[in-house]
Amino acid sequence: MQFTTKIHVKESCFPINYDSKILLIGSCFAENMGDKFQYFKFQSFVNPFGIIFNPVSLEKLIRRSVENRKFTENDIFFHKDLWHCFEVHSELSNPDKETFLNNLNSMVELTHRQIETVTHCIITLGTSWVYRNIESKQIVANCHKVPQKEFIKELLPIHLIEESLESIISLMHTVNPNCKFIFTISPVRHIKDGFTENTLSKAHLIAAIHKTINHHTSPISYFPSYEIMMDELRDYRFYAEDMLHPSQTAIDYIWIKFFENYISESEFGLMNEICSIQKGLKHRSFNPNTASHQKFLVDLKTKMTTIEKKLPFISFESE
Length: 319
Prior knowledge:
This protein is α/β, with parallel strands linked by helices. 45% of the residues lie in helices and 14% in strands.
């Protein structure tokens, strides 16, 4: 007897392997997926400008990075003891102006280099709701706790989202025509906008992504992480304590659905080896001086060295 509705995931026609270079950008779910890629030691680069929820702000950052256009004093402002930028997440904010600008521009340069070489770009969209700064008339990525009266809240229309997605693809292809795109919708529910408003927001994102896929000649695919969460995992036991974010169990489940269909099967063996090493590194012996534990450590070191020699970009040093 089947107790859940299974979401069909189409197998990718451009699977990821250990030679792939992956850029993950967007909402916090992009970071959840990024953590998985980093755990399995893929060559991945995650949210260089922090969590970005809406497609217009993502487009701005991709444009800036592709053009290698630096941030200036006109792009930043001081508020509550920190320097901020409306284009990036608060985690990058800094009390020192020069340090902040240098960090932002270092990230622009690094992202520019990454875009030139990535094979796969995974974009996770979070919401169609945006805040427009009244003074500048620009959509912001983050309000940085600036008073609400300085912004107007808007719902991005489908055609504008589609334009941003098309622009992202076009911009990246100007410097890297071989980059493949995977779009997905964050399974996190933005209930602060309202229940109906959250549904409307996600619907606009889904409609825009599929219009982009249908109208584009380049290889683009859609991974249904939102649909898996809403339907296949339709139970509050798959949510974190806030009842909005997916629990670790849900994240793990969605990741399994992803790697089964988007990662080359030829890499599954190596992924299992790396998983075994990661578990071994987290192991803490009650009797570390025993001969059996010392042998365990030697065997673990041998496994790590073998993989690091085979794939020099892999390192377990930080684990």
